Amino acid sequence: MTAPGEAARRKPARRPTIKDIARRAGVSESAVSFALNDRPGVSQDTRARVRRVAEELGWQANSAARALSGERAGALGLVLARPAQTLGVESFFLQLVSGIQEVLSARQIALLFQVVEDLGTECALYRRWWAERRVDGVLVVDPRTEDPRPELLAALGLPAVVVGGPATPGPDPSGPATAEPTAKSAAEPTAKSAAESAAESAAPAHPLLSTVWADDAKAMARVLDHLYGLGHRRIVHIAGLPGLAHTARRIRSLRTEADRRGLDHRQVRSVTTDYSDAEGAEATRRLLDAARPPTAIVYDNDVMAVAGASVAAERGISVPDALSIVAWDDSALCRVTHPRLTALVRDTPGFGRLAAQELLAVLDGGPLRTVQGELPHLEARESTAAPSPR
Amino acid sequence: MTAPGEAARRKPARRPTIKDIARRAGVSESAVSFALNDRPGVSQDTRARVRRVAEELGWQANSAARALSGERAGALGLVLARPAQTLGVESFFLQLVSGIQEVLSARQIALLFQVVEDLGTECALYRRWWAERRVDGVLVVDPRTEDPRPELLAALGLPAVVVGGPATPGPDPSGPATAEPTAKSAAEPTAKSAAESAAESAAPAHPLLSTVWADDAKAMARVLDHLYGLGHRRIVHIAGLPGLAHTARRIRSLRTEADRRGLDHRQVRSVTTDYSDAEGAEATRRLLDAARPPTAIVYDNDVMAVAGASVAAERGISVPDALSIVAWDDSALCRVTHPRLTALVRDTPGFGRLAAQELLAVLDGGPLRTVQGELPHLEARESTAAPSPR
DNA sequence: TTGTAAGCGTTATCAA
DNA sequence: TTGATAACGCTTACAA
Lengths: 390, 390
Description:
The structure is a homodimer.
Chain A: H1 6-10, H2 18-25, H3 29-36, H4 44-57, H5 63-69, E1 75-81, H6 91-106, E2 110-116, H7 119-132, E3 137-140, H8 149-156, E4 160-163, E5 180-181, H9 194-202, E6 210-213, H10 216-230, E7 235-239, H11 245-260, E8 268-272, H12 277-289, E9 296-299, H13 302-315, E10 324-328, H14 332-336, E11 342-345, H15 348-363, E12 370-372, E13 377-379
Parallel strand pairs in A: 1-2, 1-3, 3-4, 4-6, 5-8, 6-12, 7-8, 7-9, 9-10, 10-11
Antiparallel strand pairs in A: 11-13
Helix pairs in contact in A: 2-3, 2-4, 3-4, 6-15, 7-8, 10-11, 12-13
The first copy, chain A, binds a DNA duplex through α3 and α5.
């Protein structure tokens, strides 16, 4: 190593360029370029020599130069639009990102990750990245029911894949999925056949962008199967943000499943929250204080589920005897509570890998597609059981 | 907007360049460059005109071109070396990143964020980024007691700031801070005066890199003050990974504080873990099963604290009557348990802002410095109280 | 199979 | 105060 401190700082080692390699290998720069990029037009012998020299020198292509001449920036972008406070306890994103990078790092592609306050800032950032040519494409997360992003990205010509989509499904014949907001009450029961819903979820392709998604409808059906099978008839789904596409899908699915079993929409229903422990707890309190409280609650994330379990404990309501609890998404959280929480487990890093692969496929000129991730499975733990007779 | 679908994808809008601006404003390219970069050598009039045209065209500098000619890539890097499984419930990093980006986005600087498996991969990535000229500098997190990164980065001449440092403090006269691993027992009591320790923590500057850090020693002292004041005399610190610099500082501080109060090192001590809920729970079980269990436990993160509280509940040990619990780092987790957990609260986004500012200062040619973040404060909740008499 | 040369969009150095 | 012009490191026609 060089001398420490200031010295090292002032005189950074020079990075080798293609010219250095050319000189050292006794060939032209273009030959080097061809050799290193696996292009025809250079002999096996030369190719090998160039490769060896490059290795010796520890050469790596200058990403700026490559981006400037070739079209590729060698980087993809991912923006997370969340108010700073909402950046709570969420293993989801870190795991998603780690899966994405497993795929990207093998191809030497960098990921620009940015956390912003809101959707407007996110859109502005896409425009900037596009104008700056900073990224070759982006992964769009948290798709919404009304989402301006696909149209913007398509207009810019910035390749993108919607993760968790479809962002804006076609017009819903029965109107948008709605749930009572926490404050209000009662939602008019808009019946729809299971077949209708299934068809919808089978062809959710967004016309503008490729999409990778999980079948929340089927997952919700599994949860319902589990709870209904145990004997539950009063089931409430404490959902996340109402504007998100997957929230809408889950709500719609719950309704479909209720209809299929002839359950009343007053007994089986969804309420929306902001995903925070505070709103999760608040919604739970309201439900438990009602005249006929639910015997089972499904929470849209782990944090709310734990908060809900805590409320039950505070009320002296025993889980699972008097109340069953299911968490959508598993994490350490679900395993440290007492009792441990039954959870819907999905392979989040795997989902990230899928998304990255799909974006790379789009960059390579592949067709727009809709790819479905693995169906989550229900990990039954101690928080769900048959409801106590009353 | 242009026509949707394939059309938009095939014919992406052209990005305006400096040449377009020059043509349209009727000046030379270099005049445009000067005007847009606030350099002297162009009249007020021209400058205004150029600016207006650039605005109209929605021009943004092509980051690759700028990186190629100027020295700057306009991006910083942050690598998180964590085995994928350990990417658990941690709000810390997302919050840190959000703070960092508050500072960077104001200066239009992007952040390359990468999650890797281990330190070796992290170092390889620094080398690659450096060779590719991908980043202008990096933020080094999770500094260790024996850390190869500062030397590597200094040798490469890649500007960096250690976040949470100092990474490798000067040789400790009393030997490295050690704690009994969970499996073993007893550590030889290596006494050291409080003054000595204070001096050490007052001048932790790493000779190679700038550092922003939090005074874990003082924070630990605060925790001890709290618990000792309540009457606790048997206090165990369930620490995180033994190799991390801040773990060492906390362990050392605990010992110093014990000595200062004449407490036995068998009664007040640290054990190390991997931060996981599993090891946190396991360590807690071991402690509670001992002949003379501690009356208070300090956990190095929120997940372990919650896991520990859960173990206590499982054992029928009442918190805080029979056991007091403190969590290092607050989060929603600490507020959803029953009782809510007393926690050491710090401003993580603020810490991120500080780190980003410091790195920018280094990039601007500022001197190597050691900057101290805000001291965490203890948020006393229901999990700490006077120990029950026995 | 090889080398020469133009170009990518900036910044920076010169003369004018 | 301006406008050519040469880098920066790479890719890629095109010519030898």
